[in-house]
Amino acid sequence: MAGSIGLTRICLLQATNNNNGAHLNYERDNIRNMKGYVSGEQPERPDIIKLNTNENPYPPTPAVGEALRGIHIENLRRYPPPTALPLRQALADLHDIEASGIIVTNGGDELLRLLLATFVAPDEKIATASPSYSLYEVLANAHGCTMVNYPLQADWSLPVDFAERMNADGIKLCFVVNPHAPSGTLVNVETLGALAAKFKGVLVIDEAYVDFVDPSLSYSTLPLIAAYENVMILRTFSKGYSLAGLRMAYGLGSRSLVDPMQYKTKDSYNTDLIAQTLAKAAIEDQAYAAATWQKVRNERTRVREALVTMGFEIPTSQSNFLLARVPAEQSAESLYLALKTAGILVRFFNVPELQDRLRITIGTAEENDRLLHSLKGLIAAPGKS
Ligand SMILES: Cc1ncc(COP(=O)(O)O)c(C=O)c1O
């Protein structure tokens, strides 16, 4: 018996190596040549302050716990509702639209992947206004299409003549993240409407962070999906509803965008029964979620003011993070590393246009106090950073 296990192991080892001892490569050319998405660090130690992946610092509504306890294990024997209809119906009530205009996905990332699989051929071009969510480029590379980056203006506003330039370049689909990541700035609905009207491709408005927009701005792109058939809005449970671990999101759009994904390209059961049930409980407690959003906004104002006083330059954020350009004599990378040593994780992007900045997620008041205290010490003693 032991001998046969040994033989199996030897065969497996041989199977993973060619004659030169190098691994065989079965990847498509585009996959071999691409780099994967680099996620923010996920520390195991509970005492680390985690301000690097834009999670909501507050727990989900207690209704989520109750819903979890109410799930009968017996029900897991069966497949879940394939298009998450009960959840879609609850979302339709929330947004006052038809459930047919909603697709539920396994995180926003699945929706982004589905959009490419459904609307973009591998040899076609997609676009974004850069810098933006780095996963877009990774997904484009994996799909085998070309990503065209149109630089944002210095104040983070959309490129001049964006639609005209994309049309001239034959762009099939464009991702606009709003509020913008990583700056947190917000483009107004009129600008997005004008873009949708002129752009000939599919316009995806990625609203992963929309719940943190100040309600006094009355920002809502929902009228755009009724007015423009080429607009798809992405929403997620990961940020506003404190459920990043659940992997649930949804898209809102016309039937010509939703139906092909809903009935052709998504996996037959792309979201599971537990996730559908908990997501429904979360959106049905709007008052709880809205209270966490307001706490984040209050802290966002306080942290921004404190950082600006220390010499950081920060655009006004409508999101749950701040993009802070470090004071002139400081190095963003050194500050990031020094904070890490102090047990505080923030995000440093080692790309030319962001190298002098840190992206800092808004935490609880206590977490933010610790961040501000550490940064004050590091900036007062630059030798240490
Ligand atoms: C801009 C943006 N869009 C979409 C997502 C996808 O979020 P999820 O897959 O957790 O729903 C994220 C996550 O960080 C994001 O930052």
Write a concise synopsis of the structure shown.
With 385 residues, the chain is of the alpha/beta class.
Kindly list the characteristics that best describe this protein.
11 strands; globular; alpha/beta; 2 domains; Aspartate Aminotransferase, domain 2; single chain; disordered N terminus; binds pyridoxal-5'-phosphate; about 375 residues; two-stranded parallel sheet; Aspartate Aminotransferase, domain 1; seven-stranded mixed beta sheet; about 15% strand
Structure characterization notes:
With 385 residues, the chain is of the alpha/beta class. It has two domains: 49-58 and 287-384, Aspartate Aminotransferase, domain 1; 62-284, Aspartate Aminotransferase, domain 2 (3-Layer(aba) Sandwich). 40% of the residues lie in helices and 14% in strands. It has helices at 2-15, 29-33, 62-69, 85-95, 108-119, 135-143, 162-168, 189-198, 222-227, 255-265, 273-284, 286-309, 332-341, 365-380, and strands at residues 49-50, 102-105, 125-130, 146-151, 171-177, 202-206, 231-236, 249-253, 321-325, 344-345, 357-361. The chain has a seven-stranded mixed β-sheet with strand order 2-8-7-6-5-3-4, with helices on both faces. It has a two-stranded parallel sheet with strand order 1-10. α9 (222-227) links the parallel β6 (202-206) and β7. α12 runs parallel beside α14 (365-380). The longest helix has 24 residues, at 286-309. The chain is globular and about 60 Å long. The model is unreliable at 1-5 (pLDDT under 50). The structure holds pyridoxal-5'-phosphate.
Write the layout of secondary structure elements.
Layout: H1 2-15, H2 29-33, E1 49-50, H3 62-69, H4 85-95, E2 102-105, H5 108-119, E3 125-130, H6 135-143, E4 146-151, H7 162-168, E5 171-177, H8 189-198, E6 202-206, H9 222-227, E7 231-236, E8 249-253, H10 255-265, H11 273-284, H12 286-309, E9 321-325, H13 332-341, E10 344-345, E11 357-361, H14 365-380
Parallel strand pairs: 1-10, 3-4, 3-5, 5-6, 6-7
Antiparallel strand pairs: 2-8, 7-8, 9-11
